[in-house]
Amino acid sequence: MTLPRRLLGALARPRIKSRIQSNTCRLFSADAVSHPSNRVQVYISRATDPYLNLSIEHFLLQKSPPESVVLFLYTNRPCVVIGRNQNPWVEVNLGLLKRSNGIVDGRNGREEQEGEVLLVRRRSGGGTVFHDAGNVNYSVICPPEAFDRNKHAAMVVRALNSLGVSGARVNERHDIVLDIPAFNTEQRQTFKISGSAYKLTRLRSLHHGTCLLSSPNLPLVGPLLRSPAAPYIKARGVESVRSPIRNVGVTDTATFEEAVVAEFGAMYGNMDPEVIEAKETKEVSDNTPIVAKGYAELKSPEWIYTQTPQFAFSTHPTDEDPRPRPPLPDDLPPDFRVAMTVRHGQVTDVSGTSLLESLNLTYLHHVTDWRSTVGNEPVGKWLNGLFGVGSRG
Question: Domain spanning 5-304 has what CATH number?
Answer without folding.
Answer: 3.30.930.10
